Every structure is written in C-alpha cells, then in structure tokens.
From TrEMBL, chains A, B:
Residue ranges of every copy of the CN hydrolase domain listed in the record: 72-343
Cellular localization per UniProt: Cytoplasm
Keyword ATP-binding recorded: no
E.C. no: 3.5.1.6
Protein name (record): Beta-ureidopropionase
GO CC annotation terms, alphabetical: cytoplasm
Similarity comment: family membership: Belongs to the carbon-nitrogen hydrolase superfamily. BUP family.
GO MF annotation, one: beta-ureidopropionase activity
Stored InterPro entries: Aliph_Amidase/BUP (IPR050345), C-N_Hydrolase (IPR003010), C-N_Hydrolase_sf (IPR036526)
CDD domains the UniProt entry points to: ML_beta-AS
Described purpose of this protein according to its UniProt entry: Catalyzes a late step in pyrimidine degradation. Converts N-carbamoyl-beta-alanine (3-ureidopropanoate) into beta-alanine, ammonia and carbon dioxide. Likewise, converts N-carbamoyl-beta-aminoisobutyrate (3-ureidoisobutyrate) into beta-aminoisobutyrate, ammonia and carbon dioxide.
Subcellular location, principal: cytoplasm
Length: 383, 383
C-alpha cells in the first residue's frame, strides 16, 4: 500500500478493531471523543455533488453560571490544485477561486463563522523548482489583490471571517512574503500575518523566495473570537505558538503545505501540543495531492532529477485545549472540516491546569535574554 | 474494558490490523520504525523471573566520515510501589531500593549506560492526601541521603550514570523539593535538578509540599552524553524543554507520576513534541499501578471521599529527534525499557531541519521581556 493510497488512520482503526478495544485506542490516541455535528442535508448533498469530503464535529464546554456559551463554527478547507501547473497563471488562479468558492458556499450552508484556506492557496507549491518565473507572478497585494477582493466578496456574502494565505507582493519595494490575509465578516481587511519562520529543508526552498515575516505575533479580534495564524513551518517552533497565545489568541490556524515522507509522523503532534500547552484551539490544514512541474528539479538528496516532490497528505484537523482532537480529513481528497467549538472551554481548561500561572515567564525572559548573547555560557555541570 | 486492564496500544494494533495497513498506521503514528535491540538471554530470563517487562529498541544514525557513532544505552524504569502505603516508612524505602536494585542489575546486563527512575521513586505518590505526616519523612538529603548512597553504590558497581528523582529535604532550612539527583558513573554526585513547575490540579496537591525549583536549567555532562531532567508537570511547559535544550541537553529525561483520567491523551504528545522541536532525545517515564491510602481524601471535584486516585498508566517511552518514537512499556506492569541511541542523530536532524538556526530567538527574547511587564499591551488588531 503506497502512502497516497491510504485514506485515513481513523477509518482504518474503525474498520479493524473490536468495539471495546477501539474505544480505549481512541481515548489514548485522540482523547475525549468528539461528538459528530449534524450538518444540513443540502450541504451534504452539495459536497457530494462537488466531489469533496464534508465532516462535522463539536467540542463542548461545561455550562457556566455567569457566561453564556461562546459557540463558534470554524471551517478548514484542504484541496488539490485544479489546473496543471503549466496552465496560464490567471486561469490557474481563477480555477482555484472557483473551486474554493464552491467549498465556501457549503461552509456557509453549515453555518461556518470563520474559514481558513491552505497555505498559498491560489497556486501550486512551486518553491521546489527554485525558478522565479513564472511562479512569482502568483504574488498579489494583500490589501488590494484580486484574491483579497474575491475573499472580501465571500466574507460579506456569507457573514464569514476569512483567513486567506497567499504569496504576497508588497508592490512599493517588490518584496515577496508568505502571508495570511485576515478578512472580517464585514468584508474589511483586518490585517495580515506574515510567516515567521522560513524552511530550508528538502524541496521547501522557500528562503529562495521570501524572508522571515515582520508582523510579529498579531492576534485579530473578530466578532467570533480572537484568532491568529501560524503559517506552516512555524508549527515546529514552540515559541511561535507560545507568543500568539501570550497575545491572546483563542484559535490559532496553521495553514500548511507538507508531504508525507518529510513530516507526517510530526503532523498530529505539533499543533496538538500547542493546543494543550496554551489552553486554546489549534487548526492544522494541509493541502492534498501530488503536483507535477514541467521543468525537472533535484532535491539535494543525491537522487535523480524529477517532476514532483511527493504526496501532500491532507489530514487537516482541529485540536482542543483538553488534549482531545477531531478526526482528520482524508489523506487523499479535497475536504471541508466543520468544527463547532465553545470557546469557554479555553478558560475552563486554563482554570483546571493553570499553565499560564505556573509558567514562570519572567524567569524565562531573563534566561532567554542571556541565552541569545554572543557571550552566553551554557549551564553545564562537568565532573 | 477498564483503563487498568488495557495493556498496550501497540499490542492492540499489532493483533488486529492487517500487515499492509499496520505498517502505514505505525508510520503515521510512530514515525520510522525503531529496530528491536537484541538483549542478552541472561537479562531476558532475569526479567522474567523477577516479573517485569523488558523491551529493547535502537535508534540509528547515518555513518559520518569525520565522527564515529556515539552510541549510548539508556534505561527507563517504571514500577509499582512494593509495600502497602501504611507499612513503616523505612520498610517501604528499603523494599523500593531492593526492587529497583534488581531491575538495575538487569539494566547492567543489557549494557545500559544511563538509567532513570520514576518521579519520587522511593515513595508512594502521597501528595493527594494533603497530609504532611508521615509522607514528609520520605524526604532525604540529595547529597547525603540513604537513597543517594544506595545509588552511588549501584553507579560504581555497574559503571552507570543514575538519575534518581526523590523527595528532597534540604536540612539546614528544612525546605522540601522535588529533585532529581544525578550521579556519575564514577559514583560522584554530579548535581541535582529541582522540579521547575509545580502542579495545582486534581489530586496533584504538590504545591502544598514544595515550591518551584531554583536550580534553573542545568545540563549534566556525563561520559555518555549531555543530559537534563525535566520533572513531571514541567513537560506541559514548552519553555522548560526549550531552555534545557538551549543549555545543550542531548537527552532530556521526564520522570513522572500521572494517571489515566487526567493526562493519558497528552502523554504521547508532549515529550515527543520536545524531541522534534529541539533536535534531541526525550525519555518519558511514568509509574504504574494504583496506590491506596489509609485516610480517605477528596479530590476537589464534588465527588465522594476515596482512598486512591486512579491508575498510573506506565507507558514509558523514548522519542527521537526525527519524529519517531519507541513503543511504550505496558500500561500495567513493572518494566525496563532499554534504548540504544546514536547521539549523532541529533546534529544530523538539526542540519536537516535547522530549527535552532531558524528560531529567531533574539526577537523572542525581546518580545517575552515586554510580555511579562505589568504594562504589557497585547498585539491585538480590532475592527
């Protein structure tokens, strides 16, 4: 069985394990069982007609006396590229707009309040090629580009906050960035969050194209909760999640593009660890499918030149502060994951575990400040 | 099936999943398959006679041209208490010395270089009772206590570094600490590492007994590698792992005592996330069994008073920097996990993923310093 044929971990476990053991396995692996969310039949049939997976789950919180529940529905979209990578740029972008647009329409039927797309969602993940042309032509203004305008229309139409991760061109200085544009449900561009950590690994030659972000750890206060965006490789950096949390993030999105051979065993660990450690929800999104490029390229691994860099394994999921997580979308198909979460859970779990109060952050601030000095002497005891 | 009957996740998967799917499931859950380590027949039969589980695994690294392999064998010991909790204190301590001593002897047969015991290994985890007496009588001097002397003998006899987590009494001021004593294979006390973060959750009333550690993030340079100890609740704090790594830790031990209902779904996430994020090995150790106390106690959860606080689920394991992990020891039995690791893997994975170089620590030092000020203004964008 090849890695791009295996559809989903959860499905495999459910079809082979006896009931009693299955429930223990799921408890250990995924925590408290997430309830299924009833989705409207019109959404279910639209998803089926449009050939994408639709799944819904719910994270509940205890009823409090003084606060009403703060239930929010979040949508995660994962998808393949639509046209071949050598189709005209504008056709490729328009085809992605059209595909994602029809998925967002289904999200609206499901009552989604905040939707997030995958990393650089309007384009193939072409950084493996190290060619500047034609790929930099996919870059757009975060504030005024066609893709942002397209998202603003969707946002207004569906009263939905949209997180739109694109390749950004800042036109005045022609700098490129890997940027998530956050659009309010009013249709206004709330702001943007640039990728803080840029990989130099395997075919992820992104440092060839853009630099580390300069927008810090901005949190966006929306009508539906405080959200932040930790883009792709930033999920490997615990301090990045931490700092979004210190700025008040209740939901942190992690739009990504990553392939099986490189990162799959880490995928279920990192975003989930962040949800646990920071008493918040995290949403991990990965694209699916294999993207083929016309020019062959090498991967710095001594192997022959080739035209693709493996299978993007999807598996988008949501992790909760109580250590539980939703099942993932499939490893192989386009999908929309709808998750209802009661944000009251964040404070309830914080009051239970108290990581923020037991964190000793002042001491870490001092230690870290010493650590980064060129004359830092590590605290090593020798015999 | 109750939580204390379910023996092990890995065993369950192995006995029910078809071969092809099992290998995909294991790849996704556990990463690159860890090879089994051949252990000497005398050790296997001694473990069987002494009624504990013995498992061995190996993490290999690529052969380099300029550096020879740096292969180290680490032993993780998990065990039940031996005598009832109302037996005389000295009898309880002696029984634990004797039990762990016979397990260390088997570790020596397996060529273990560094062994780590579970948190406060000489005593029941009695902090649930909130009684000071008789439990504080288990506290000993880290430098000169009987337990340290016992470990020094073992260390010399077997040429083994020993990490011995105890309840420490600092006699001059009668302060108590939760402390790991690190004893060199020469028999010398190299130093100690006090628990940095103290829980206030459920039955873990440890803040009633001792305060946050004052030994910082010390790393111990031993003949077999640079080691550090992140005790129990410290594993929930990403900055704690991070700071041990910044001080040069190659292997971080996490001796713990934790129960199923509270933390089991987090168990496989946190130490493993740290190994990935910091390009090092982490060793998570949990005790096993259910401990009964004579006085009944309540748990602050509105339920009736009771005499135990649930099942310690064992499941000790080792996580590697490449995202893989060893299978765990059982959830139900005493056990010794022997893991051979080539420490060259740390640098190899660091050179591949480069988290330390892409970490932007100077910027985090500045941000964190601002964050901990009373006048900190979070970076929140509002509409």
């Amino acid at each position: 069985m090849s890695a791009c044929e295996f559809e989903s971990l959860e499905k495999c476990l459910e079809s082979h394990l006896p009931e009693a053991e299955l429930s223990e396995v799921k408890r250990i692996l995924f925590g408290k069982e997430t309830q299924k969310l009833d989705l409207p039949p019109c959404a279910v049939s639209a998803a089926s007609e449009r050939d994408f997976e639709l799944k819904g789950f719910m994270f509940d919180a205890a009823q409090e006396q003084l606060r009403p529940p703060r239930r929010v529905r979040v949508g995660l979209i994962q998808n393949r590229i639509v046209l071949p990578t050598d189709a005209p740029i504008l056709d490729q972008i328009n085809a992605m707009h059209s595909r994602v647009g029809e998925m967002v329409e289904v999200a609206a039927m499901c009552g989604v309040n905040i939707v997030c797309f995958q990393e650089t969602w309007t384009m193939p993940f072409a950084f493996c090629t190290r060619e500047k042309e034609p790929w930099t032509e996919f870059a757009e203004s975060a504030e005024e580009g066609n893709t942002t305008r397209f998202c603003q229309e969707l946002a207004k139409k569906y009263n939905m906050v949209i997180v739109s991760p694109i390749l950004e061109r800042e036109g005045l200085h022609n700098t490129l960035w890997n940027t998530a544009v956050v659009i309010s449900n009013s249709g206004r561009v709330l702001g943007k969050s640039r990728k803080n950590h840029i990989p130099r690994i395997g075919d992820f030659n992104e440092s060839t194209y853009y630099m580390e972000g300069d927008t810090g750890h901005t949190v966006f206060q929306t009508q539906f909760g405080n959200i932040a965006v930790n883009i792709c490789y930033g999920r490997h950096h615990p301090l990045n999640w931490f700092m979004y949390s210190m700025n008040g993030a209740e939901i942190i999105f992690n739009p990504s593009a990553t392939v099986g051979a490189l990162s799959e065993p880490m995928w279920s660990i990192e975003a989930r660890n962040a949800a646990i450690a920071h008493h918040c929800f995290t949403c991990a999104i990965n694209r699916v499918g294999t993207e083929h490029f016309k020019s062959e390229f090498t991967s710095g691994d001594g192997k022959k030149a080739h035209h693709d860099f493996g299978h993007f394994y999807g598996s988008s999921y949501v992790a909760a502060p109580d250590g539980s997580r939703s099942p993932g979308l499939s490893r192989t198909h386009d999908g929309l994951l709808v998750v209802e979460m009661d944000l009251n859970l964040n404070r309830q779990i914080s009051d239970k575990w108290s990581f923020k109060m037991t964190g000793r952050y002042s001491e870490y601030a001092e230690e870290l400040t010493k650590t980064v000095r060129p004359d830092f002497k590590p605290n090593i005891v020798k015999e």
